[in-house]
What we know:
- 26% of the residues are buried.
- The chain has helices at residues 43-46, 65-68, 99-102, 125-128, 134-146, 152-156, 195-210, 225-236, and strands at 2-7, 22-26, 52-55, 58-59, 79-80, 93-94, 104-105, 186-191, 216-221, 248-252.
- By secondary structure, the chain is α+β, with helices and mostly antiparallel strands.
- The chain has two domains: 2-123, Quinone Oxidoreductase, Chain A, domain 1 (Alpha-Beta Complex), CATH 3.90.180; 135-252, no CATH class.
- It has eight helices and ten strands.
- The strands form three sheets. A five-stranded antiparallel beta sheet has the order 6-1-2-3-7.
- The protein is 24% helix and 16% strand.
- The longest helix has 16 residues, at 195-210.
- α5 (134-146) packs across α7 (195-210).
- The protein starts with a strand and ends with a strand.
- α7 links the parallel β8 (186-191) and β9.
- It holds the Pfam family ADH_N.
- InterPro entries: ADH-like_N, GroES-like_sf.
Amino acid sequence: MLGFSGIAIKGFDCRYITGHELVGIVVSLGESFQKAAAGPPDLYSALKIGDKVVSPFTSSCGECRPCRIGFTARCDDSLLFGSPRLPGAQAQYIRIPRAGGTLFRIPQDESTLGTEPAARIRTSDASLILLADILPTGYFAALQAIQHSNLAYAFAHKSFPVIPGFVSAFITGGESVKVEVDDAKLAFAVVGLGPVGLCALVSLVELLGLTGTPNFAIVAVDPNEARRAKAEAILATLGSSPGGADSAVTQYSR
């Protein structure tokens, strides 16, 4: 059970408790949480009262095949928070089913040990709540884009087909064709600069920077001037980050 410090959406009048993503403090633990727990997710033996956690908008067991391979949204026992089957985050407390496979514990700031638990986290709740759904949604879109097989030539600097893994040893035909610098230039479009679009834009810039892609352009599209300005301001802060935004060419529709 958690006591809330942040939720993502406002409530409305309906017959069940709404609210998807959440940030909270653990106030009690069920019988499944034991120090000697073996087999279930590690959080069952590690989580303790007072820990700060983030929850995605679905519960997941962490033990079925989809969970084990990372597809937790396809969990055999998944339930949606804020639905008729599972009360959501628009409340003072919430019970988290399959909590050991659902929650993510926020690491404590070791320099503040001895203070109240809520004061041990430097990241604001407004930022942490993005981790529950909005940021991962944008990040996943960016990840899917750069992992598309049609872009492999740009990262490998080899002509198509480029197939990673052992199969590549049996694929021939493109080795003698030189991929020029301009050939490997990538162009992306992010359509819509709301919260998810901004997270996709930031994720794309970071991922391209971290992969060492020197030549790319991103066209960010939104008719709302305030959103374009917000995106511009966010991009301006990324220059000193690991990925960096220095090599991005960003345009905005007017």
